[in-house]
């Protein structure tokens, strides 16, 4: 089965469900306001949620990983460098998350935030905010670094086979999927650009703070829960 791609129009966030042949599943970057929607998809397909995976501590929406864990018994997985202490699985570069005979490989891809990761499942790459379709995530908060993001994309993501499908954490222009080969040749921020040029480009963006950062960031460090044990 291909990844199931779900969208939150308010934050332009993509959530993904990965399904194994035995009915176990993992979800990537779920959004709190869509918890019931995501549970309905799992029920409709006869899937049992084994893992809720976070690519980083989000600043523009609140995760539902904690709530999904409570409702399904799934285990929450978060990058070790993101300060999400309630997640029982703290992910490191090279880790493999296994469910139902499937494997999700963890790639530490810092730059958008210091702890950001991407996930590789089969020939599908879930890039969070590190690599977007024809773009990339901002690098000006949460320990972000334009130089680190450039290195993450060039040295880790662009080193993958060209046919690897790129599933981003966000899209603002109605796009849903790309490939590593297309991004290497065409990405407006990264293709053909030197590291120094990229750093200068990102420094000149002068973006406003995400509207929800003061609410979302502390909530997401608690897996979206008001209280944690």
Automatic annotation (TrEMBL):
GO MF annotation, one: hydrolase activity
Source organism of the structure: Massilia litorea
Gene3D superfamilies reported in the protein's UniProt record: Ribonuclease Z/Hydroxyacylglutathione hydrolase-like
Name recorded for this polypeptide: MBL fold metallo-hydrolase
Record-annotated Metallo-beta-lactamase domain positions: 12-170
Keyword entries, A-Z: Hydrolase, Metal-binding
One Gene Ontology term from the biological process aspect of the record: hydrogen sulfide metabolic process
Highest taxon of source: Bacteria
